[in-house]
Inverse folding.
């Protein structure tokens, strides 16, 4: 008896963004991304958490696959084999080693077997490889990507002793959060100067309200207030908060409100408590919440 | 003549003869006394008496005086004593005379009056009590004499027994100091009559004090005189007993107990006083040192809680006292957190100091600007134009709040009120009350501002008009006020007026108020309208706060004056206020002004719209003014008022302006040429004009409590300065220096100043000029141009010359890195290591007390460090167990034929913390710079160079009362260090604190506040207190010296933590151009040296411009640039934790 498959599993090469991800551009980032993609210039997305970096990449992957490019509508970007452009996302963490990206040998009953890492697969298959929060990764990983980001467009796998040329559709996109202070973690210049950088920041109040309303499904009045809350809390950045309230956070609050949680409580659990552990800052944010929400 | 005839006469003669040997007064007195006594005394007695006199006279050379006194006093004394006692008295005197004739003199002298109060059998005792004070010296005899002399008066209130005790006390005290005893005697004579009944008790107390700490007796008598006298009889005894008990345990000085006790008892309602003293007693029973603290703090406690609640607080304190004496003292001093928490939980009031941080952050969130929150009294103290100490207000950059809110019975409501009043003040900032720009068009009105003439223009044009009329009858010179050019309006378009300079206004607000003749009225109208606008925006943006807001408004309405009591114009203003506070029903207005009222109401509604900006409030003000000015301020009868219908909902929508523009313009043009009056009103005659028939002087309305004071003009002036600094004032960027004259001019015209000037009539001028001076200072403080750090006069000393040699003790030489030559200059700098002088421990204590929340938080954070010591470490060559991932990889590598990694183990590393850290504080002169608004006073440059002299200089400055009210960078550094040190002690790391400064390469000063291997002791807080700005910043040598110290420390990880406020600079270290780089490179080199020795350097700077050079200086090193210096105390421990774990 085959077990019924209750989950949706697919190879990373087969992950295509098929439905349009909701994204409201704040300036010309879509055009820039498209231009960069056409020229295969790697892209660096900078900005605080929850400002829509990941969503933007998804949106662009979809957009390029759908051929909605600004200059030549209908001109689909393909992976070089005439297929759609997959999006391969790797969330970087402090234990992420080069082999986690490139691949490793595994032990098998018959001996060892080589398994490609996500980056290798993206390079071979042709697609957007998105390394989220690149600074979190160990230093050796950044060196791996260097040859991929210049004219060479190659990936060297030293354990195999081979070099792979990237498929035509391949593009490396990385993101990082310069954060509140760049003191302890920063991207090396040799790395960062290989990318076209797009800066992300929180959208303005009106746009953010739209986003919140769309993503959470709450009414526009509530969304407007949530956006205002976000704006006010961001004023505390660098004065007790390391990061401002992310749009994502506000969306969660909106979702809870939609589920019937009281407004103040929803903000408390999804914004106030999430954003800081400092009781005094929490208290101050609570005061802002209770001023904005009845 | 036969001598045998009359033996009595013989005896007398004989006596006379004998007495003749002595100076004349003796005999004279004898004769006088004899005459009176003859007949009253038996002959025999009389002879004995005379004989006694002779005895006395013969005793010593000077004793004749005593004899004379004796004879003198005898007459009166004899009257009161039977003869036996009389002679005994005489004998007593004689024996005193043996000791000292002066004693006898005093004895005799005071006897007649003393005998009135003294029982004859006590005569001897009396003499002995006094005599006991005599110890053969001049001083002692003087004291004894004084006691004799004082006796008659003393005995009026004291029993003899009490007198004896007093004598004993004096005797004890006199062993220490005759002067003190003498003073006590004098003070006692005054005090005792006032505290009859408690004298003995008091003397007893005094005696103990004299025995324990005699120096304090004087103070004791002083405070007793001040305190006990006022205190009612029933509480005197218990208080004295209490003091006595405390003194016996040796914990406190009695004087303080009496003083504080009396003060406190007097402040407590009569029926609670006994209870209070009982409470104190019960505290004393468990912890004697706590009792005086309790007595002292009671008034403060009672400001916050009721007496019964205080009982609970006290009971909790007693519990604490059973556990620890020290804790109890802190508790009753209200210094311990548990004490404050207890009080907090009991009290329903809200103290500004407790919520200040929250409100500050709340304001920051709302406005996006760093807004300070201060007690309202502080603004009043500055004396720059605000006078109400307890009303909320703002000057555009800081909000000022009452220090305590105790309006409601619950904490929530009180805080709610606090939030309402802060939100309103923040609203003024958030919604731009002070960003008023004369030229910005309003959103909702047809702009009248550009079309109206200013007062100064009107006057100018009038002069011009006259001038031209005098010359020739030219064509009638019509004054046109720029109808067509609203923005770039020429002040006066007529040609002759061009000669007169257009008026210069310091603020747009001033320019606006210049439009009005009755500025006070205009300001009041603007205040109502602008406050309504702010309230309106708050209601829209912050619906959450509205419940409380409405409640507060309703309470405000209840306290408004009755409209019908007011004259017409004031009634109309009051009407506006009531509308703005949300009153709808029972709105009374003068019947004849119903129309006006409808219009005013509409104006309020208009500005309450969210769309309204400050310029709308200004436009509305013009309209309101033009309506109000037409209303005579006459007294009205109650029946001349009628109720105004509430407006119907739909009606608010019509957009018609309430006034006719052309009419208003005409009205404003005509302001200064009233029909009936001559041209006499040239200047300053504003006041007298409207005292026409039946009109009252116009008085401004009572402030709305929750809105507080509103001073748009001053606030705009003050906040403009601040905004320029933040680069928010783009177009007005090059604002010229404000002169004193300009300020005076502004103050003269500012409507918000008028009231105060008339109030403080006498000395008013002086007050005003004082205020202007203060305001000038305040402005200078805020002027960003003045804030830049300017290094002192650069005495250029030749930096050439050779290496230095350290000959004196505690001096060290270090090389310096010359990046141009790419080599070291050997022994180039001389470091002088000194130990920081001791200061007061208060700073340390107070800082901890003020930041309890933070202290607790840091402590918590540091506690988390301990588990972190057990972190799992992967990829080790040896350890507890295999790391499965690593093993797999290794196996695979083996199979594939690649050489495997050997790091296959992991270990739960019991990471013994072995940390040594040296904190290096920048004590350069620039740390004296005030934070944010204030600039350090320029005379700081007069500081002597020598640190010792500097300290003396600083002390003298402090004692001159030139206390700093602003906070300097160095103060924040101190705070940070204090908090950190406090927590570091818990962590057990080895740490040293050093400060450095200096001038020139041969004088790098290195101050030890706490050495690495020094144990923390009381002296460290005292040294921290002395941390103060000194000279320049030659970082390199200081880092090298600290590195040398760290290198000797035995610790696995060593850190050098540098806290600075700017780039390194010193004479010959950082001059123009390339030399700037020199300092940066040397510093960098010294850091590299440190790293080579296995020390991790970290630099924290508060220099906002730090990013540029820090990039170079700290490349590959960790550093942080703090954007807000106030974060330092908080951030420092965080960084420390991150760095060392």
């Amino acid at each position: 008896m085959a077990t019924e498959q209750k989950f949706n599993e697919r190879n990373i090469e087969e992950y295509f963004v098929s439905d349009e991800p909701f994204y409201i551009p704040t300036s010309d980032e879509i055009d820039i991304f498209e231009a960069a993609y056409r020229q295969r210039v790697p892209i660096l997305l900078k900005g605080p958490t929850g400002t829509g970096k990941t969503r933007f990449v998804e949106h662009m992957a979809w957009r390029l696959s759908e051929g909605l490019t600004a200059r030549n509508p209908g001109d689909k970007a393909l992976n070089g084999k005439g297929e759609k452009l997959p999006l391969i996302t790797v969330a970087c963490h402090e234990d992420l080693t080069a082999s986690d990206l490139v691949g490793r040998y595994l032990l098998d009953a018959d001996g060892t077997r080589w398994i490609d890492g996500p980056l290798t697969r993206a390079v071979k298959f042709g697609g957007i490889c998105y390394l989220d929060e690149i600074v979190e990764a160990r230093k050796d990983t950044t060196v791996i990507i260097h040859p991929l980001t210049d004219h060479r467009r190659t990936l060297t796998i030293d354990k195999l002793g081979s070099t792979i040329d990237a498929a035509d559709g391949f593009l490396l996109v990385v993101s990082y959060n310069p954060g509140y202070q760049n003191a302890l973690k920063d991207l090396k210049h040799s790395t960062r100067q290989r990318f076209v950088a797009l800066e992300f920041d929180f959208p303005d109040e009106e746009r953010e309200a739209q986003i919140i309303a769309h993503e959470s499904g709450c009414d526009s009045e509530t969304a407007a207030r949530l956006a205002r809350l976000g704006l006010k809390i961001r004023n505390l950045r660098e004065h007790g908060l390391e990061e401002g309230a992310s749009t994502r956070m506000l969306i969660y609050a909106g979702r809870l409100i939609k589920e019937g949680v009281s407004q103040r409580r929803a903000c408390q659990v999804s914004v106030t408590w999430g954003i800081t552990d400092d009781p005094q800052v929490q208290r101050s944010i609570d005061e802002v919440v209770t001023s904005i929400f009845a | 003549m036969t001598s045998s005839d009359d033996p009595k006469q013989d005896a007398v003669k004989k006596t006379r003869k004998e007495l003749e040997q002595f100076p004349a007064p003796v005999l004279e007195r004898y004769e006088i006394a004899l005459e009176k006594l003859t007949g009253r005394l038996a002959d025999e007695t009389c002879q004995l008496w005379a004989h006694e006199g002779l005895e006395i006279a013969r005793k010593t050379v000077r004793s004749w005086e005593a004899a004379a006194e004796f004879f003198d006093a005898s007459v009166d004394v004899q009257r009161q004593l039977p003869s036996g006692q009389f002679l005994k008295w005489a004998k007593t005197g004689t024996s005193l005379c043996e000791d000292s004739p002066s004693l006898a003199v005093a004895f005799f002298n005071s006897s007649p009056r003393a005998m009135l109060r003294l029982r004859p059998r006590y005569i001897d005792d009396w003499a002995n009590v006094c005599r006991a004070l005599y110890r053969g010296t001049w001083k002692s005899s003087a004291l004894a004499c004084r006691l004799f002399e004082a006796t008659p008066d003393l005995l009026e209130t004291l029993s003899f027994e009490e007198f004896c005790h007093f004598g004993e006390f004096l005797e004890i005290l006199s062993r220490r100091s005759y002067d003190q005893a003498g003073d006590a005697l004098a003070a006692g004579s005054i005090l005792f009559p006032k505290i009859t009944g408690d004298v003995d008790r008091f003397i007893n107390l005094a005696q103990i004090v004299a025995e324990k700490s005699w120096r304090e007796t004087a103070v004791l008598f002083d405070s007793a005189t001040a305190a006990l006298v006022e205190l009612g009889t029933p509480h005197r005894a218990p208080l004295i007993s209490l003091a006595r008990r405390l003194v016996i345990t040796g914990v406190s000085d009695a004087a303080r107990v009496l003083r504080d006790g009396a003060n406190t008892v007097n402040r407590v309602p009569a029926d609670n006083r006994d209870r209070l003293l009982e409470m104190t007693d019960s505290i004393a029973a468990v912890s004697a040192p706590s009792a005086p603290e309790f007595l002292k703090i009671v008034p403060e406690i009672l400001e916050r809680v009721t007496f019964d609640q205080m009982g609970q607080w006290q009971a909790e304190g007693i519990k604490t006292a059973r556990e620890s004496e020290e804790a109890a003292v802190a508790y009753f001093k209200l210094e311990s957190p548990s004490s404050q928490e207890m009080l907090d939980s009991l009290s329903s009031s809200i103290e500004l100091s407790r919520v200040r941080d929250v409100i500050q952050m709340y304001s920051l969130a709302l406005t996006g600007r760093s807004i300070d929150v201060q007690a309202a009294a502080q603004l009043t103290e500055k004396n720059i134009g605000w006078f109400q100490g307890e009303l909320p207000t703002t000057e555009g950059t800081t909000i000022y709040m009452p220090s305590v809110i105790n309006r409601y019975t619950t904490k929530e409501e009180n805080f709610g009120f606090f939030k309402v009043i802060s939100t309103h003040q923040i609203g003024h900032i958030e919604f731009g009350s002070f960003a008023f720009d004369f030229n910005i068009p309003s959103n909702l009105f047809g702009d009248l501002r550009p079309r109206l003439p200013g007062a100064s223009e009107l006057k100018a044009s009038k002069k011009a008009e006259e001038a031209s009329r005098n010359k020739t009858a030219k064509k009638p010179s019509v004054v046109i006020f720029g109808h067509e050019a609203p923005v770039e309006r020429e002040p006066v378009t007529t040609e002759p007026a061009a000669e007169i300079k257009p008026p210069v206004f310091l603020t747009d607000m001033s320019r606006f108020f210049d439009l009005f003749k009755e500025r006070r009225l205009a300001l009041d109208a603007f205040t109502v309208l602008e406050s309504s606008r702010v309230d309106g925006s708050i209601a829209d943006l912050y619906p959450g706060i509205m419940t409380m807001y409405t409640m507060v408004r309703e309470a405000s309405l209840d306290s408004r004056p009755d409209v019908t009591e007011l004259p017409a114009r004031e009634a109309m203003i009051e009407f506006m206020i009531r509308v703005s506070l949300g009153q709808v029903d029972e709105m009374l207005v003068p019947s004849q002004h119903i129309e006006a009222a409808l219009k005013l109401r509409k104006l309020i509604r208009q500005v309450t719209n969210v769309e309204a900006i400050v310029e709308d409030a200004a436009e509305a003000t013009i309209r309101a003014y033009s309506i109000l000015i037409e209303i005579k301020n006459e007294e009205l009868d109650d029946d001349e008022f009628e109720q105004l219908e509430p407006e119907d909902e739909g009606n608010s929508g019509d957009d018609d302006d309430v006034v006719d523009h052309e009419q208003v313009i005409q009205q404003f043009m005509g302001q200064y040429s009233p029909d009936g009056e001559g041209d006499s009103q040239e200047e300053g005659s504003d006041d007298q004009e409207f005292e026409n028939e039946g009109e009252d002087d116009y008085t401004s309305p009572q402030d709305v409590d929750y809105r507080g004071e509103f001073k748009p003009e001053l606030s705009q002036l003050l906040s403009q300065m601040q905004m320029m600094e933040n680069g928010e004032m783009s177009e007005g960027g090059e604002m010229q220096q404000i002169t004193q004259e300009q300020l005076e001019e502004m103050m003269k015209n500012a409507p918000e100043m008028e009231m105060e000037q008339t109030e403080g009539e006498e000395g008013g001028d002086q007050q005003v000029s004082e205020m202007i001076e203060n305001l000038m200072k305040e402005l200078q403080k805020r002027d960003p141009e003045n804030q830049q750090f300017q290094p002192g006069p650069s005495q250029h000393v030749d930096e050439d010359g050779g290496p230095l040699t350290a000959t004196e003790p505690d001096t060290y030489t270090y090389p310096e890195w010359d990046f141009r030559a790419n080599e070291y200059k050997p022994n180039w700098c001389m470091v002088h290591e000194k130990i920081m002088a001791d200061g007061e421990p208060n700073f340390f204590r107070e800082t901890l007390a003020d930041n309890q929340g933070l202290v607790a938080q840091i402590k918590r954070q540091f506690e988390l460090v301990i588990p972190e010591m057990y972190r799992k470490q992967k990829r080790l060559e040896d350890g507890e167990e295999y790391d499965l991932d690593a093993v797999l990889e290794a196996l695979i590598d083996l199979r594939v034929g690649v050489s495997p990694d050997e790091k296959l183990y992991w270990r739960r590393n019991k990471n013994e913390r072995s940390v040594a850290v040296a904190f290096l504080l920048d004590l350069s002169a620039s740390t004296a710079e005030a934070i944010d608004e204030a600039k350090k006073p320029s005379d700081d440059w007069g500081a002597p160079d020598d640190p010792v002299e500097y300290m003396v200089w600083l002390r003298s400055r402090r004692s001159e009362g030139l206390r700093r009210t602003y906070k300097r960078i160095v103060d924040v550094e101190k705070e940070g260090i204090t908090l950190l040190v406090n927590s570091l002690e818990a962590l057990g790391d080895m740490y040293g604190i050093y400060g450095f400064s200096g001038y020139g390469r041969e004088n790098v000063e290195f101050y030890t506040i706490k050495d690495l291997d020094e144990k923390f002791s009381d002296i460290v807080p005292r040294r921290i207190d002395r941390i103060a700005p000194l000279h320049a910043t030659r970082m390199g040598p200081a880092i090298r010296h600290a590195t040398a110290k760290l290198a000797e420390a035995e610790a696995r990880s060593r850190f050098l933590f540098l806290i600075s406020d700017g780039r390194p600079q010193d004479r010959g270290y950082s001059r123009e151009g390339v030399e700037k780089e020199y300092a940066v490179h040397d510093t960098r080199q010294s850091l590299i040296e440190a790293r080579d020795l296995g020390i991790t350097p970290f630099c924290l700077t508060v220099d906002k411009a730090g990013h540029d050079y820090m990039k170079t200086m700290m490349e590959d090193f960790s550093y942080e640039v703090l954007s807000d210096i106030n974060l330092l105390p908080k951030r420092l421990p965080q960084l420390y934790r991150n760095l060392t774990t």
About this structure: The interface with chain B takes residues 99, 104-107, 111-112, 159, 181, 183-184, 228, 232-233, 235-236, 238-240, 264, 278-281, 283-285, 287-294 of chain A (CB under 8 Å).
